[in-house]
Structures are given as C-alpha cells and as structure tokens.
Amino acid sequence: MTLHSFYIFDRHCRCVYSREYTQGSDGGSTNRSNESDTAKLMFGMLYSLKNIASKLGDKEARNNLKSLSTGKFRLHLFETATGLRFVIVSDPAIDNLQSVLWELYSNYYVRNVAQNALSPVDFACDELLANPKFVSETDRFLSSLPVFR
Amino acid sequence: MSSYYFVIIGTRDNPIYELEFSSFRSGVSGIQVPGKSQFSPSVKEILPFISHSALDIIEDAQWSTNSFNLGKIDSFYGLMINAFISQGNIKYVLCYDANGSGTNGSSSPSLNKNDENSIKQFFTEANELYVKCLLNPFYSVNNAITSPDFDHRMKLLARKYL
Amino acid sequence: MSKTTRYSGDEMWKNNVEKIQNSELFTLTYGSVVSQLCRDFNNNYQEVNQQLDRMGYNIGMRLIEEFLAKTGAQRCQTFKETAEMISKVGFKIFLNIQPTVTNWTQDGKTFSLVLNENPLADFVELPMGPDNRICRDLWYSQVLCGVLRGALQMVQLDVDVWFVKDVLRGDDQTELRLRLNKFLKDEVPAGED
C-alpha cells in the first residue's frame, strides 16, 4: 500500500503541481516533473477517458471517472467544477481515494491557495503552485494516512 | 416659548453644522411658524460669536467633570449656553433664551431641572447621530455636514426634546 | 429546483461559515476602499466602477473555490438553476442575504437580482454635490458585479453583470442584472482535438 505521486492540473490543462514520494529518506521531489512526458501523457489519457465515460450515459447521470488501474499502479482522479484536476498515483491495492482528493481540494487547496490573496489562482503559463505551506501541509496529511506506506 | 441656536464644532474649532429653531413644546400662537426661531436680528448676528466665545470655557470645563455633558456653562444678556463634548473632541453648543425674550408675548416656561435633562438627552442623541454620520465613508472629520437626512433627523430630535 | 434544495444556504450559514465578529468592520473597510478610489481617481466615477469591478473579479475567482468546497455543488445544468444557486446559496453563505431572482427575459438568458438589503452599503450616504454627478455615475456596490462575473467565469459561464438601480441613488430598490453570453468550453490539452 503506497502513494507514489500527487499532481494538480489547472483548468488550462497544465500541471501546476507535481510531487513524487519516494520510500527513502530524501523525501521525494516537488515540481520536478510538471513538464515531463509522463505528466502530459497521463493527463491526456485521463482527459480522453473522462470524455468517454461522460458519453456512456446521458448527461444527467454524471458518469465521472474516478480511478483507473494498470498492472502496478492505480490513478485516482477528482475534478472540481472549476476545472482543477487532482490526481494521485498509488499502488493498485488502494481502492478509493475520492475522500482524500476532496480533502486536498476543499481544505488544503482552498485554504492555502484560493484564500491566500498573494498566491495566484489562475496560473499563468510559467507559474507553478510552490506555496511552501501547501506543500508541507499536504505532505503531512498524506503521510499521516494509513495507506501512505 | 424659547428660541434655540445649536451648533456642532469640529476639532479645529470650525463649525460643521448649525441649526436655529424654537421650542415645539409650548403652545404656538397663530402668527408664528412652528419651529421658527424668534431671535431678534441683532441677536441672530452674534450667535456664532457667542458660541465661539464659549469654546474657551468648554476647554476649561471639560477637565472639571467626568461627564460629557458640561451643563450650563455661560450666559450672555439673557442667553443661556449649554455644552456637550464628545470623546472625539467634537463640541456641541446650544444657545437659548430661557425667558422667551423676543417672542410675541407667549407663555415663557422658565428653565427648570427638567429642561436641563432634556437638553442633556438632546445632546446625547445628537452625538449618536453625528457618530452615524461619521460612519459614512464619504464623510471625514471636520467636513461640514450637508446631508439632508442628518438635518431632518436633527430637527426631529429638536422637536422631541426641546 | 429540486437540485438546489440539497444545498441549504441557511444551514450552511449557521454551521459552516466563519463569521466576522463585527460586520461593521467589513462594511467600513469596503467604504474606505470606495472613497479612497474616488479620491485616487479624482472623482472619475466610471473609472472607480471599473476598478471595483476588477477587484470583484479577482475576489470572485477565489471565492468560487471556497463556495464549491463548502457546498460540494456540481455544475448547474441550466441558467435558471444557476440563478437560484447564486441567490439561495451564494449570497446566503457569504453575505447572509437572499436576493430575489426576478425579471427573466423571454429567452431565459437575463435576470435580475433584487437586493432587499445590502450589507456593503450600511451607513452610506452619497454626498450631494452641486451637480449630483456621484449619484448619476457611481455604482457603489459594483464590486458585487465583479465577484459574480469572476466566480461564474471559473465555472465556464461567460456573463455580463451590471447594476440598474441602487437605493443609494434614491431608487426604490437595489437591482443588478445578469446576462448569460455563452457557456464556455472546457479547455482541451495540447495535441487533443
């Protein structure tokens, strides 16, 4: 049971926050792979899959994509009404992280980014979410979860 | 039937609001416009000077009491002068002819304890009105008060207490 | 509007909202902003309106996230639903008022919000100048227009918002109008169609 990484994509489809967790003592990396092919491909895939999902039922049904799994990983997706996408990559054994993603958005993102008047909310094309408090608080929150390690 | 001259004076000894009126309390004889002051023209002219000369007395009197109402502080040829000072150093001065001189022979209620009290009430509520006026973002301290609403409310106060 | 009844603005106002202890502080702060803008722009009230609108827009962009986080609301399906949501939930949880939604146009794209009370304008009296220009030109609560425009744009609704009446100017009520220009499309990642 492990969480590998955590990404936030903004409504312009850019990765504004990427956080890799490693099991060693170095604490992983922050905002290293925002422009990486992995992030872009992952977003493209989630985007297409989400479109397919929404076309399966009628519009009212809100057939939202929540997660998808491969042999070794599971991707968890949560999209806000404002078009922010929160993504966590985990071990395939972890079934559902919707409440965790909701908490990351409704509590940590809203408090540290949206309500922080000095932090951008609609990120310009060279801006990243690098608010240290957001990073440390979400790290603490995620690592406190039983599924983290 | 007494006539009154009421003035609010700002922190730089500048008048910011004036009102002249007569008592609404006693019976109004036919020829008078209710509420219209009955000061003689010569008295009318010097009212601003009388109230301004009272400022020096207010300066002294404010240290001799704990209350904001300074009571009757001066008189000038039959004109009484009452004053009230606020926390923000805004002075309220009321000049009035207690014996009803200059009126057309109507009854002249003499000044008694009750009047002192109603003047105090009048000052207190006038101060409240001023504070409300101060909350308006377009008003700043020592500006002349031009609001018609304030004027209207002041007149209602005058009618209620004096 | 069965959907919107799920989100009870009343309940949320009671339990879920951090209230400022003294709302006068809020009202006076907004008041000083407006009067300072009037001084800064030399009583060019059109410019002041624009500035307030812009400030509101920036607030709206942030406020919508808080709104969604508090309510857990999904995107509305119709503009009518949006109108109810704005009045019954949005205004309720942020300002504790509930404007009336009214005056719909035939095409259902424009409606009015009538504010029975306006917490921004407590104590305010527009100064009577000789020309009374301030009463003609200044929309004192213009910031609300900006907030609505910013917040709705973040959920892909392109709207125009403007005041048509304000009791501060001597009108019988305070009324703002919202017009839906179009539903915006979600952005598509580079390389997708």
UniProtKB/TrEMBL annotation, chain A:
Keywords: Endoplasmic reticulum, ER-Golgi transport, Golgi apparatus, Transport. Its main location: endoplasmic reticulum. InterPro entries: Longin-like_dom_sf, TRAPPC. GO terms for cellular component: endoplasmic reticulum; Golgi apparatus; TRAPP complex. Pfam families: Sybindin. It comes from the Eukaryota. It is found in: Endoplasmic reticulum; Golgi apparatus, cis-Golgi network. One of its GO terms (biological process) is endoplasmic reticulum to Golgi vesicle-mediated transport. Belongs to the TRAPP small subunits family. BET5 subfamily. Part of the multisubunit transport protein particle (TRAPP) complex. This is Trafficking protein particle complex subunit. It comes from Pichia sorbitophila (strain ATCC MYA-4447 / BCRC 22081 / CBS 7064 / NBRC 10061 / NRRL Y-12695). The lineage of its organism: Eukaryota, Fungi, Dikarya, Ascomycota, Saccharomycotina.
From TrEMBL, chain B:
Gene3D superfamilies: 3.30.450.70. CDD domains: TRAPPC2_sedlin. GO terms for biological process: endoplasmic reticulum to Golgi vesicle-mediated transport. InterPro entries: Longin-like_dom_sf, Sedlin. It comes from the Eukaryota. One of its GO terms (cellular component) is cytoplasm. PANTHER family: TRAFFICKING PROTEIN PARTICLE COMPLEX SUBUNIT 2 (PTHR12403). This is Piso0_004789 protein. It comes from Pichia sorbitophila (strain ATCC MYA-4447 / BCRC 22081 / CBS 7064 / NBRC 10061 / NRRL Y-12695) (Hybrid yeast).
Automatic annotation (TrEMBL), chain C:
Keywords: Endoplasmic reticulum, ER-Golgi transport, Golgi apparatus, Transport. SUPFAM superfamilies: Ligand-binding domain in the NO signalling and Golgi transport. GO terms for biological process: Golgi vesicle transport; macroautophagy. It is found in: Endoplasmic reticulum; Golgi apparatus, cis-Golgi network. InterPro entries: Bet3, NO_sig/Golgi_transp_ligand-bd, TRAPP_component. One of its GO terms (cellular component) is TRAPP complex. It holds the Pfam family TRAPP. It comes from the Eukaryota. Belongs to the TRAPP small subunits family. BET3 subfamily. This is Trafficking protein particle complex subunit BET3. It comes from Pichia sorbitophila (strain ATCC MYA-4447 / BCRC 22081 / CBS 7064 / NBRC 10061 / NRRL Y-12695).
